[in-house]
Specification:
The protein has about 350 residues and is an alpha/beta fold. The chain has a single domain, classed as Alpha/Beta hydrolase fold, catalytic domain (Rossmann fold, 3-Layer(aba) Sandwich). The longest helix is centred in the C-terminal third of the chain and has 17 residues. Helix 2 packs across helix 12, helix 3 crosses helix 4 and helix 5 crosses helix 8. It is built from twelve helices and eight strands. The N terminus is likely disordered.
Length: about 350
């Protein structure tokens, strides 16, 4: 890599707002950040835990953020499919400042973690690895916060390890509806893989603009598009695309909708009311797409099926409130988790 390119990557990593200087109709040339985001900076040091995937070693990346004035409690932040641990940076900083120890993993198959070709993805596998990570850090019990796909993982974690969950917070979670019941057909991994190989800066931004940010774009969002697109640039792009395809199949075929009664820890759903996300819409027949309900429509029904859950809505925000309005989201989150479980 040339000295110039190294400097260019560093500038993009630290100052992504500079991307806004590029004309809107000319997406910038995306640097190769590596299939494990090797050249993308995270806000705290990244550590790894080794796991075995079908007899081969793999690395699960994570950040462990210690507060200056500990309150004795831990919060675990679980990212969504199109996000990474780094996306939680502002929320993790607010939590740490309030005295919480914060664990932020990148799940196997995502971001700075390994993307083993042989892996058969399941939420049980990801939950088990997350539990193993917390045990290795000496954390028997924690508040679990999951966003989007991470909300599905958080629910599965709570079902598997209810005694290890002090409180559960689900931020615009997927999986509250079984899309098979809506008529969305199954799409095999090879077809999904072919679609993922077409991923680009422009396609990521267009999807997020429509579904996450209700047609309004802020310069601060560009960093996260840049991060995701940067994994697809080099020789490892096929492994990234395959991992994303397998994750999509996992989300599609492993909803939590029929097991909501098993989510027993104290639970709060935080939902941005302008979220248009309806997972599976892209694979649905054209005449069905407009009938697929988005998360804000599904959430009020879903929360009634959980034994100890409440719904908290954020009016005017979309799928990623922690990105769209960090100050408002963090104030809400700190209020929610400040109440200890019974």
């Amino acid at each position: 890599m040339s000295r110039y390119f190294r400097r260019a990557v560093a500038r993009v990593t630290v100052l992504p707002a500079a991307l806004m200087l590029v004309a809107a109709d000319q997406p910038p040339a995306v640097p190769d950040f590596g299939p494990m985001l090797e050249r993308f900076a995270y806000p705290w040091p990244v550590q790894t835990m080794e796991v075995d995937i079908i007899g081969a070693p793999a690395q699960m990346a994570f950040m462990d953020i210690a507060p200056q004035r500990p309150n004795g409690r831990t919060v675990v932040l679980l990212h969504g499919k199109n996000f990474c641990g780094a996306t939680w940076g502002s929320a993790a900083r607010a939590l740490s400042g309030a005295g919480y120890r914060v664990i932020v993993p990148d799940q196997i198959g995502f971001c700075k973690s390994s993307k083993p070709r042989a892996a058969q993805y399941s939420f049980e596998m990801l939950a088990t690895f997350t539990r193993r990570l917390l045990e290795s850090r000496g954390i028997p019990r924690a508040t679990i916060v999951g966003h989007s796909m991470g909300g599905m993982l958080a629910m599965r974690y709570a079902i598997l390890y209810p005694a290890a969950v002090e409180r559960l917070v689900l931020v615009n979670p997927l999986g509250l509806r079984d899309r098979s019941e809506d008529g969305v057909p199954y799409t095999d991994v090879d077809t999904l893989w072919a679609g993922e190989k077409k991923t680009s800066y422009a396609s990521i931004k267009a999807y997020q603009l429509e579904n996450y940010y209700h047609g309004t774009w802020k310069p601060s969002y560009d960093r996260w598009v840049w991060m995701q697109a940067g994994m697809y640039q080099g020789a490892g792009r096929d492994s990234v695309a395959l991992a994303q395809a397998k994750a999509s199949e996992m989300i599609r075929t492993q909803p939590v909708a029929h097991e909501l009664y098993r989510v027993t820890p104290p639970t709060t759903l935080i939902v941005g009311t302008l979220d248009k996300t309806a997972f599976g819409r892209a694979q649905a027949p054209a005449n069905l797409r407009k009938f697929l309900e988005a998360i804000p429509v599904i959430a009020p029904r879903a929360v009634k099926q959980m034994p100890n859950a409440t719904l908290l809505t954020l009016d005017g925000l979309g799928h990623s409130p922690q990105v769209e309005d960090p100050e408002r989201f963090e104030k809400t989150l700190l209020t929610v988790i400040g109440a200890r479980s019974r």
